[in-house]
């Protein structure tokens, strides 16, 4: 068997068998009981050459409608944003992507420093004191924030706004089952979390209240009012936030959030059918020693040179074992690097400019829909998404739009029965005026 | 700042420089303040760098040169399977039709992606000998928790509410007990015998009607195949528990023994280990979970299924444990793993394990003269040595690891598993040549001699890295976790 990934020659093999003192490789497997030994070969597809396999998989990929060949107005938690070309060049350096967790700091300073910079940038955007090195994604980060809150407050109920991403809420439910916590939804009123309903639900059993900012329906939640109610009840204030929006929105840290989580996908990470993306997790100093996942800290070597190490590891699963409150081990380091490069490329000015462009273009689109006679539902302050009532099945509309090279918005009827026939439309800085006008016209034609 | 310090990107920043090129603003602009509620327009600028594109590339190129990956040199980090990451995987994952599709697009517009995932599931079923596979978990630990949640749901569905204990061997990775805790279960430890294998007597003592599951990796963390696996599975099954396979060490048994045939009910795989998704500096990974038929109803939702010629996302799963992750898993890593499996084929995967095991045994035999070998029998894909002989000379395993850095090698895993004193755990993988193995062995022998003749050179290592040993105590006592503008 010759293969480009397997360098041993027959001669090597014989020499090695001799050193070991066996005559065949099979002897090395003699400890596998006969009864469970697998004989023969797997019944799977035969190997393909590099050329043939690339051709086959290219054709398979071509059967998907991608965001480069089509114009997308789909967001709902995963966004088509400007991806600085440089990002892929940096993460393609194999010193980064073929390394593992930086357990040996002397030969992992590059990765450790890059993570330290990532932690800093997330703190800056969210207005928080401490950020970890990444989580799997925004949904699991949100669930872990609820777990941390329950452990910290010794309370057993999590209140989550219905305007939090439906799939994140589902993930929260699963994690909560694991920890025997109750999850109660706070209803939405006029597109934002119902403050009066929240007042009726908070009590001494509530560990955390989780909201999203901007929320799933695109609206800006009133964090100031929410914070007062939540902290009055000594519950933890957890905010899930699109970090790109924080280029122009007042960060949750300014409003007294205890934990801010979300997904850094909008910064330089491809949509990739939902993953891998990059969860982030940021807290106030008082929760520093309870953060899940890995943290990188600054220190010095014996000659006074600055260096970076994994630190506060007493929090982590491999030390705490069954006392651990999170079992996260692998994270999304390479995607955190991608996000860092994108945040670096955008920088102080660009992050504001890109966030403002989202706000402006979405606002233009919203007005265009209204002018064309559409109902924009629960209209109010929003970021780059808003809800339009199409009065017809969104799935059908999207199939028709796709014929025109347009990937339409999200079908809200999937999660909110009262919003059947309503589309969540996302307009990022990537969309041109012409594309927006075309969408409005096409939907108008279908509407008529 | 020390004059040899690598600058942080924030220290390279100069006001007025930009590194971006945003799309044209081609719509009429409104007053931003009027578009947001009062008090919600950000006032303070975030401290992000202001740098040119070349500044960025030089910065990260410089960082990359301070980092050791598999492409830089040998990386025998035990239990992590640091094999070569094929470049075709990277190209395929970047095809527009894979990298740039949205998870919430209409199913009809992502049939190619669903077909790939479905076919990957089929391949993993055959490789593991299980009846169904979910690709949703994002990493190995996430897969462990998913599997345990399914086992818990299975027992609960049977009204078997007393089953709250998960048995793990004392040699298990710390993630196993942590996953059990997060799944709402308690951990019980089963001892290893003097051969490094599960002590059957102790297992019989700890199993009972409160047993939810036994978690095991086979070969175990010592690199030894659990020869009594059939009996182990029977003991647990007779007690009414399930047997969980931690797939961290699957590279040792491809085409040799399948978890499903060994009696395991649930298995998670680490696609970033055996199946070459790159480790990425710590992630992203992918942790699919395979199950036997009686656990299928509890799989996370949605399940990727095939109906006629169409691939669908099946949400109608009333007994499902629910979602464990938004969308459908780390698709990009799954694409890479699929590409790898299709590059190897059945005979290639068989050769992978044969060479992985051959390499480990060769290294073990050549090093046995110079380091203590706690378990003297054929190992599988990895083996453990003990540095206790060197410790008596004042040279600790940590010192040996640091000395290896001077020769351009990533050290093995050290001080794990916990049941071996001064443990050194070596996993060469099948993608390394004999020359590489020999050069590493020669240096290990040299270090053993240095420990006898010139211990200081080992104790004070590394001597050639960009920084020396770092003060981890101060890092933990006075944490500096972010850059602060001076």
Automatic annotation (TrEMBL), chain A:
Organism of origin: Neobacillus rhizophilus
Keyword Oxidoreductase recorded: yes
Protein name: Probable glycine dehydrogenase (decarboxylating) subunit 1
Protein family per UniProt: Belongs to the GcvP family. N-terminal subunit subfamily.
Classification via PANTHER family: GLYCINE CLEAVAGE SYSTEM P-PROTEIN, GLYCINE DEHYDROGENASE (DECARBOXYLATING)
Keyword Oxidoreductase set for record: yes
Pfam families the record matches: GDC-P
The entry's keywords: Oxidoreductase
Occurrences of domain Glycine cleavage system P-protein N-terminal (ranges): 3-442
Role this protein plays: The glycine cleavage system catalyzes the degradation of glycine. The P protein binds the alpha-amino group of glycine through its pyridoxal phosphate cofactor; CO(2) is released and the remaining methylamine moiety is then transferred to the lipoamide cofactor of the H protein.
The reaction(s) this protein catalyses: N(6)-[(R)-lipoyl]-L-lysyl-[glycine-cleavage complex H protein] + glycine + H(+) = N(6)-[(R)-S(8)-aminomethyldihydrolipoyl]-L-lysyl-[glycine-cleavage complex H protein] + CO2
Enzyme class: oxidoreductase
Quaternary context: The glycine cleavage system is composed of four proteins: P, T, L and H. In this organism, the P 'protein' is a heterodimer of two subunits.
InterPro entries named among the record's database cross-references: GcvPA (IPR023010), GDC-P_N (IPR049315), GDC_P (IPR020581), PyrdxlP-dep_Trfase (IPR015424), PyrdxlP-dep_Trfase_major (IPR015421), PyrdxlP-dep_Trfase_small (IPR015422)
GO biological process, one term: nucleoside metabolic process
Automatic annotation (TrEMBL), chain B:
Gene designation: gcvPB
CDD domains listed in its UniProt record: GDC-P (cd00613)
Domain of life of the organism encoding this protein: Bacteria
Pfam families: GcvP2_C, GDC-P
Assembly description: The glycine cleavage system is composed of four proteins: P, T, L and H. In this organism, the P 'protein' is a heterodimer of two subunits.
Cofactor(s) this protein cannot do without: pyridoxal 5'-phosphate
Family statement: Belongs to the GcvP family. C-terminal subunit subfamily.
Record EC number: 1.4.4.2
InterPro entries: GcvPB, GDC-P_C, GDC-P_N, GDC_P, PyrdxlP-dep_Trfase, PyrdxlP-dep_Trfase_major, PyrdxlP-dep_Trfase_small
Domain Glycine cleavage system P-protein N-terminal: 49-300
Gene Ontology terms: cellular component: cytosol; glycine cleavage complex
Domain annotation Glycine dehydrogenase C-terminal: ranges: 353-453
GO MF annotation list: glycine binding; glycine dehydrogenase (decarboxylating) activity; pyridoxal phosphate binding
BP GO annotations: glycine decarboxylation via glycine cleavage system
Record flagged with keyword Nucleotide-binding: no
The protein's role, per its UniProt record: The glycine cleavage system catalyzes the degradation of glycine. The P protein binds the alpha-amino group of glycine through its pyridoxal phosphate cofactor; CO(2) is released and the remaining methylamine moiety is then transferred to the lipoamide cofactor of the H protein.
EC class name: oxidoreductase
Species classification: Bacteria, Bacillati, Bacillota, Bacilli, Bacillales
Keyword Nucleotide-binding included in the entry's annotation: no
Residue numbers bearing the N6-(pyridoxal phosphate)lysine modification: 273
Catalytic activity: N(6)-[(R)-lipoyl]-L-lysyl-[glycine-cleavage complex H protein] + glycine + H(+) = N(6)-[(R)-S(8)-aminomethyldihydrolipoyl]-L-lysyl-[glycine-cleavage complex H protein] + CO2
Keyword terms, alphabetized: Oxidoreductase, Pyridoxal phosphate
Protein name: Probable glycine dehydrogenase (decarboxylating) subunit 2
């Amino acid at each position: 068997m010759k293969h480009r990934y397997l360098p041993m020659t027959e001669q090597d093999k014989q020499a090695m068998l001799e050193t070991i003192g066996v005559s065949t490789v099979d002897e090395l497997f003699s400890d596998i009981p006969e009864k469970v030994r697998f004989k023969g070969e797997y019944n799977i597809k035969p190997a393909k050459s590099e050329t043939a396999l690339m051709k086959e998989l290219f054709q398979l990929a071509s059967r998907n409608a991608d965001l480069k060949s089509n114009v997308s107005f789909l967001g709902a938690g995963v966004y088509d944003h400007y991806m600085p070309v440089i990002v892929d060049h940096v993460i393609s350096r194999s010193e980064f992507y073929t390394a593992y967790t930086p357990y040996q700091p002397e030969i992992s300073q590059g990765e450790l420093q890059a993570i330290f910079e990532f932690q800093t940038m997330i703190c800056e955007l969210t207005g928080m004191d401490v950020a970890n090195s990444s989580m799997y994604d925004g949904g699991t980060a949100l669930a872990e924030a609820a777990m941390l809150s329950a452990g910290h407050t010794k309370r057993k109920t999590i209140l989550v706004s219905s305007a939090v991403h439906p799939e994140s809420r589902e993930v929260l439910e699963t994690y909560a089952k694991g920890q025997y916590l109750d999850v109660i939804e706070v209803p939405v009123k006029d597109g934002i979390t119902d403050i009066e309903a929240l007042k009726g639900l908070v009590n001494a059993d509530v560990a955390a209240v989780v909201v999203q900012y901007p929320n799933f329906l695109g609206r800006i939640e009133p964090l100031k009012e929410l914070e007062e109610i939540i902290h009055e009840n000594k519950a933890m204030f957890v905010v899930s936030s699109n970090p790109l929006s924080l280029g122009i929105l007042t960060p949750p840290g300014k409003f007294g959030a205890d934990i801010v989580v979300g997904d850094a996908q909008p910064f330089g990470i491809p949509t990739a059918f939902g993953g891998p993306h990059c969860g982030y997790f940021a807290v106030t100093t008082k929760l520093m020693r309870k953060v899940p996942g890995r943290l990188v800290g600054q220190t010095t070597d014996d000659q006074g040179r600055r260096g970076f190490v994994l630190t506060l590891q007493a929090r982590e699963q491999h030390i705490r074992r069954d006392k651990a409150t999170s079992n996260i081990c692998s994270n999304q380091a390479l995607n955190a690097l991608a996000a860092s490069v994108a945040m670096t490329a955008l920088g102080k000015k660009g992050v504001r400019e890109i966030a403002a462009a989202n706000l402006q273009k979405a606002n233009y689109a919203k007005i265009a829909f209204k002018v064309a006679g559409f109902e924009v539902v629960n209209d109010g302050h929003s970021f780059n998404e808003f809800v339009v009532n199409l009065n017809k099945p969104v799935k059908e509309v999207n199939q028709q739009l796709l014929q025109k090279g347009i990937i339409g918005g999200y079908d809200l009827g999937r999660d909110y029965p009262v919003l059947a026939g309503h589309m969540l439309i996302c307009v990022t800085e990537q969309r041109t005026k012409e594309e927006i006008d075309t969408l409005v016209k096409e939907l108008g034609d279908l509407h008529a | 700042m020390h004059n040899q310090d690598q600058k942080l990107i924030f220290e390279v920043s100069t006001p007025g420089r930009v590194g971006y090129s945003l799309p044209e603003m081609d719509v009429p602009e409104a007053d931003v303040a009027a578009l947001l509620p009062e008090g919600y327009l950000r006032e303070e600028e975030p401290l992000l760098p202001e740098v040119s594109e070349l500044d960025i590339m030089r910065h990260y190129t410089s960082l990359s040169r301070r980092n050791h990956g598999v492409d830089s040199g040998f990386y025998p980090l035990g239990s992590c399977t640091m094999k070569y990451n094929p470049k075709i995987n990277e190209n395929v994952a970047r095809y527009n039709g894979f990298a740039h599709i949205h998870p919430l697009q209409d199913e009809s517009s992502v049939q190619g992606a669903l077909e790939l995932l479905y076919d990957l599931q089929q391949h993993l079923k055959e490789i593991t000998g299980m009846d169904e596979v979910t690709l949703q978990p994002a990493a190995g630990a996430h897969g462990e928790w998913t599997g345990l949640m399914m086992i818990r749901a299975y027992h609960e569905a049977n009204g078997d509410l007393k089953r709250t204990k998960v048995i793990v061997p004392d040699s298990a990775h710390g993630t196993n007990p942590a996953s059990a805790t997060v799944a709402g279960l308690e951990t019980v430890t089963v001892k290893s015998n003097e051969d490094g294998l599960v002590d059957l007597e102790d297992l019989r003592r700890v199993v009972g009607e409160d047993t939810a599951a036994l978690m095991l990796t086979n070969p175990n963390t010592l690199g030894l195949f659990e020869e009594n696996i059939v009996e182990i599975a029977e003991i647990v099954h007779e007690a009414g528990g399930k047997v969980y396979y931690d797939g961290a060490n699957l590279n040792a048994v491809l085409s040799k023994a399948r978890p499903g045939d060994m009696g395991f009910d649930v298995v998670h795989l680490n696609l970033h280990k055996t199946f070459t998704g790159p480790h990425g500096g710590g992630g992203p990974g992918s942790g699919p979970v395979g199950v036997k038929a009686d656990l299928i109803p509890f799989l996370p939702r949605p399940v990727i299924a095939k109906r006629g010629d169409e691939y669908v996302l099946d949400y109608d799963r009333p007994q499902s444990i629910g979602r464990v992750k938004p969308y459908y898993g780390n698709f990009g890593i799954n694409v890479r793993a699929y590409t790898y499996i299709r590059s190897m084929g059945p005979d290639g995967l068989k050769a992978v394990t044969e060479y992985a095991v051959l390499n480990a045994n060769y290294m073990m035999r050549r090093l046995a003269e110079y380091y203590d070998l706690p378990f003297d029998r054929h190992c599988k894909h990895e083996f453990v040595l003990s540095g206790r002989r060197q410790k008596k000379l004042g040279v600790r395993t940590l010192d040996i690891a640091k000395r290896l850095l001077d020769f351009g090698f990533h050290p093995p895993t050290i001080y794990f598993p916990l049941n071996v004193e001064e443990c050194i755990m070596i996993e060469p993988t099948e993608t390394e040549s004999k020359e590489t193995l020999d050069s590493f062995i020669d240096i290990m022998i040299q270090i053993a001699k240095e420990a006898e003749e010139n211990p200081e050179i080992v104790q004070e290592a590394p001597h050639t890295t960009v920084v020396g040993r770092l003060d981890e105590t101060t890092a933990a006592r006075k944490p500096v976790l972010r850059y602060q503008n001076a």
